[in-house]
Amino acid sequence: MVKHENFKTCDQSGFCKRNRAFADTAAATSSWTSPYALDPTTIKFKDGKLSGTILKTLSGGDEKVRLPLTVTFLESGLARVTLDEEKRQKGDIVLRGDSKARKERYNDAHTWAIVGGLDVSQGAALNEKVDQGYTRVFYGEAGKHEAVIQHQPFGIEFKRDGVTQVKFNERGLLNMEHWRPKVEKPVEEKKEGEEEKKEEETKQEEPKEDESTWWDESFGGNTDSKPRGPEAVALDISFPGYEHVFGIPEHATRLSLKTTRGGDGAYSEPYRLYNADVFEYEMDSPMTLYGAIPFMQAHRKGSTVGVFWLNAAETWIDVIKTKNSANPLSLGTKGHTDTQTHWISESGLLDVFVFLGPTPQDLTRQYGELTGYTAMPQSFAIAYHQCRWNYVTDEDVKDVDRKFDKFKIPYDVIWLDIEYTHEKKYFTWDPLTFVNPDKMHKHLKKRDRKLVAIIDPHIKNTDGYHVIDELKKKGLAVKNKDGNDYEGWCWPGSSMWVDCFNPAAITWWKGLFKYDSFKGSASNTFIWNDMNEPSVFNGPETTMPKDNLHHGGWEHRDVHNINGLTFHNATYQAMLERKKGEIRRPFVLTRAFYSGSQRVGAMWTGDNLAEWSHLEASIPMVLNQGISGFPFSGADVGGFFGNPSKELLTRWYQAGIYYPFFRGHAHIDTRRREPYIPGAPYTEIITQALRLRYQLLPAWYTAFHEAATTGAPIIRPNFYIHPEDEKGFAVDDQLYIGSYGLLAKPVTKEGADSVSVYLADDQPYYDYFDYTLYQGAGKEHTVPAPLEKIPLLMRGGHIIPRRDRPRRSSALMKFDPFTLVVVLDKDGSAQGTLYVDDGETFDYQQGAYIHRRFSFDGKRQIMTSTNLNDHRSTAKLDNYLKSMAKVRIEKVIIIGAPKEWKTKKQVIVSEEGAKESKRKIPVGLEWFEASSGKASWAVVRDPKVGVGRGWKIDFS
């Protein structure tokens, strides 16, 4: 299991300990006042920006530190609060030890994380009414948002429609550790008898700030020099009236975040964001994992708000919930819960975006506008991936491929871990085991399958290896604190790390992926970036020393959480340029991530265990990734470490089909567990689960398109779909797929033969396979789930597209016909969408796609297909539509079909653009009666309408 001694607690992290102590002092002092005040004489407001200077009063009261403040009001309805430190900003400080580090606070995180949404509001306006001690700004749509800035002590209340939603510095925990010169204290010799006297004097003095880790800090045999001294930044952010907060991945926790100050069921440690290689991580813990997204949202009935803490340094977040009872003397008032959070980062600016919602959809869209939407993947990337550490030879790869075909199990991608390389040197192949990679690629290409090869950021430091030779010669490696190439230890042994903060390093990295450089790779080769936290086996906390230096002179402490994104981005850019004229969407998986990583690929939850608890935890972890802006996520199916039982492996596949990124993976010491290995009945059951994923690929692909255009998560928790349902806010063991009303509840308990599914609304829900009806709002419903049964319900009111013909890979389904499943709501209506493009190129950006809305009007009993593609006709669009001209709807299934259809034998189908003689064609209708709790249903077979055309089916 995880070695806790390798990773810091808050008490072992100097800046976290200091700021927690600061919070304790504030809480214990009845007269506590924050020492930060906004000087009203410095306030200026122009063009949607408010600026001023905050003065920090030091102990004694005479000296003040100047902190430049900017509050920017954005056209999107967001507010951005930035606080810097004047002395560091001007470079008016002295670094210790001849350090080559930058003097400023790190101010470049936005260049990696932010890609849009920064247009300043032209409608933001100062409230002209004189309000002593406050400055008020109205902003947002129709001025519905208001920022109330208190001058002394400094604080901000963010209101929507006159109601306070978010508060800054309510508890007075704002703390920006200012620069001060190190004072070398003389070592005094203690005379006999003086020690006891000194201790007695110390007891009588007021407690002083702990300076023990201001200038250096040791942990695990490593000492971190701190040339800039203490520079942490902290702020308390409160959400009055909000009981549930979500987000800040990555942690192995529930969706609704627990409190962190001890007590029954609570954590005693803050949530930590510090990307790290955590070996066999434990469940139900605020401990850091591989990635960091400092985006938190708070939710209550009728409102969702949030904050994005733009800081790339190590960060700790305390969560406290305070229950406020109703006043018995105030009729009609209810009790409520406030959530108070305390954010603490080691270095950098205070830079916070405030989201006032009011819906979950508003937050995911606005966050996506800021940091970028999910990259639209190639269609193969959302199908099934088969991986282990390691497929040992190229013949092994081909053998696995053949066995999938032999057992008629669909899959799209096979993966190679580090053993494929020659002596752990990336961009090489082991000459003894991968003798002919070209032949291997051609073998896979016969059925349009792909290969993913791992390439990590550590480069083996050895003689005669062209990659390390070039890295050193060009000076593109990360440096140590003295400015020399940093050398650490990873899989290859002695290694150096590519510094992808350097544009020149990205340019060089691109060249390594070209086919004539990475010999043996092919157009169906894609990439996996692992270990990019970065993982350094002999480094502090299994990562890089914080006083290492990156391009531009920034210390590693400033940029640590962004490091994985820079490497992931460099590989994405490289995959775009492998061959001139061959532009395909890249697929690059990453383990480490930050806000913005969603723009360049997928992630997975790292080195989990083959245990039921890890299967259970994977659902809230992947859901949390989705609402936090990185929905292309998944967990290793079967568990990375250990050997799952056949039951666990089967149940994990049945759950894994609901991960947006769906990959089976296993450790080098585990037994083989490809789906064909377990034997009957497990292989057949797993195969059925895989076929269900493939059958629903049209729905998954459309959900990805929605994520790529609106920021919406691909799999969605109950609160996102039902934001008014208070009972369901914390439900995180079931999920909805896209906008399709498909409600899945994976089995995560050993020996279970049923699951309890929570239904938030009173719409009818139908079993996906046999149309059993479930209905009743705010209740748990028992759904049978023997081993061979996958609990999946369809919510009334939706139309679900699918492809029903089993194929060996998704590419072979490209021109297959579609089936539409029409699930009628209680009013007899339904609608849904379908998005289709070539699944490979960027032509969709020029309109080369099909996007249709299907609607069933219960009153008129007419089903229609209408166009959602608003692009003008282009050559690419016309060519794509021509290529899809023969792709049709082969079946329409209506669930909950009305009884009056019992005697109806046909419907009338008409299609736009059809010849006069084919404009109204009768097509047969079959109706099936309800029985034993199952709904009635009907089928229209082969209406002979094109998927890319407008059409109408008249059931009246």
UniProtKB/TrEMBL annotation:
GO terms for biological process: carbohydrate metabolic process; N-glycan processing. Its EC number is 3.2.1.20. Gene3D superfamilies: Glycosidases (3.20.20.80), glycosyl hydrolase (family 31) (2.60.40.1760), Golgi alpha-mannosidase II (2.60.40.1180). It comes from Polyplosphaeria fusca. Residues 184-229 are annotated as: Disordered. Its main location: endoplasmic reticulum. Pfam families: DUF5110, Gal_mutarotas_2, Glyco_hydro_31_2nd, Glyco_hydro_31_3rd. Pathway: Glycan metabolism; N-glycan metabolism. InterPro entries: DUF5110 (IPR033403), Gal_mutarotase_sf_dom (IPR011013), GH (IPR017853), Glyco_hydro_31_AS (IPR030458), Glyco_hydro_31_C (IPR048395), Glyco_hydro_31_N_dom (IPR025887), Glyco_hydro_31_TIM (IPR000322), Glyco_hydro_b (IPR013780). Residues 374-703 form the Glycoside hydrolase family 31 TIM barrel domain. GO terms for molecular function: alpha-1,4-glucosidase activity; carbohydrate binding. It catalyses: Hydrolysis of terminal, non-reducing (1->4)-linked alpha-D-glucose residues with release of alpha-D-glucose. Belongs to the glycosyl hydrolase 31 family. This is alpha-glucosidase. GO terms for cellular component: glucosidase II complex. Residues 184-206 have a biased composition (Basic and acidic residues). Keywords: Endoplasmic reticulum, Glycoprotein, Glycosidase, Hydrolase, Signal. The keyword Nucleus does not apply. Residues 68-318 form the Glycoside hydrolase family 31 N-terminal domain. The keyword Signal applies. It is an enzyme of class 3 (hydrolase). It comes from the Eukaryota.
